[in-house]
Amino acid sequence: MIIDGKEIAKKIKAQAQNCCSNCARKPNVVAFMLGEDPSAESYLRMIEKTCRSVDFGYELIRFETSISEEALLNAIIEKNLDRQVDGILVQMPLPEHISEERVIMTIAPEKDLDGFHPLNAGRLFKGEKATRPCTPLAVMTIFKALEVDLDGKYIVVVGRSNIVGKPLAVMLMHQNATVTICHSRTLELEAHTKKADIIIVAVGIPKFLTKEMVSEKAIIIDVGMNEVDGQMVGDVDFESMKDYVQMITPVPGGVGPVTNAVLLLNVIEHFKGV
Ligand code: NAP
């Protein structure tokens, strides 16, 4: 079965729209962007489109890359204090003279849409209520939408980044999965992936996971987004696997659209203060 991320995203958007239709005001998102970068621009355009599609407010605040760290932090603090603002995003990477860490720490945890603030990361780690980073949240949302029971499953996550692999492993563990995280120093990766009920790949190498590395009962989630000859390609060799494994996400049309849509769920949580 090929997992239809667009369909899942559509349902999340409908849920988001219904959720706030009777509220006194609409939820509002503010994004900060420094300088010009085509891939960041297209990412933020997508966020804007998603917000507008469900009648959420969206404001993009642009600065030159020469802005001082202090001025950027003050602009963020101003939005932290604005009661009309429910979610704040700062497009990374930042220029060298600005500390990513200080920027992340400055965004109020209750407005942190990416879930990168250490307070949110710590709460997530402890199994407490936290804003969860969108990509891992998207993967969990896909499992929920497809009613995949994670309890007792052997799940291999390939990739240990702070924004995907690590938080995802924690979320899976909270659902009682047995989780193994693999990375570039893992020995005999195949020995793990072959045994896995579910494999989630976030390495950033086109067609990294091949049919020989998986069992036919596996569910494969491809987080990878790599541009090859102008085309978006995942970390999984989709063509060789799509008729072999139990379920698989395509790229594009898998995790990507769901990641985009679950941002709305984080906005709603902040908006409602839950
Ligand atoms: P990252 O920070 O570069 O991390 C990549 C991870 O892959 C690292 O943990 C690295 O191991 C591991 N790795 C690299 N080569 C490996 C190998 N040969 N064998 C096993 N593991 C290997 O990347 P990321 O930010 O997590 O992103 C990963 C992919 O997901 C990229 O394609 C990115 O574009 C995509 N992505 C998609 C979304 C979405 O919404 N769909 C969101 C974010 C990212 P080490 O730690 O040992 O270096």
What is the radius of gyration computed over CA atoms, rounded to a whole number of angstroms?
A: 19 Å
Q: Number of DSSP helices?
A: 10
CATH superfamily of the largest domain: NAD(P)-binding Rossmann-like Domain
Uncertain segments are none
* CATH top level assignment of the largest domain: Alpha Beta
Percent of residues in β-strands: 15-25%
The strand count comes to 10
Main β-sheet, in a few words? 5 strands, parallel
Please state the structural category.
Answer: alpha/beta
* CATH fold node name of the largest domain: Rossmann fold
Whole-number tally of structural domains:
2
What is the CATH-assigned architecture of the largest domain?
3-Layer(aba) Sandwich
**Could you report the average pLDDT, rounded to the nearest whole number?**
96
Overall, the morphology is globular
H/E order of the elements?
Answer: HEHEHEHHHEHEHEEEEHEH
- What molecules are bound to this protein? NADP nicotinamide-adenine-dinucleotide phosphate
Strand order of the largest sheet: 5-4-6-7-10
Q: Name the helicity range.
A: 40-55%
Whole-Å distance between the termini?
35 Å
Key structural traits:
single chain, 274 residues, alpha/beta, Rossmann fold, five-stranded parallel beta sheet, 10 strands, 40% helix, globular, binds NADP nicotinamide-adenine-dinucleotide phosphate
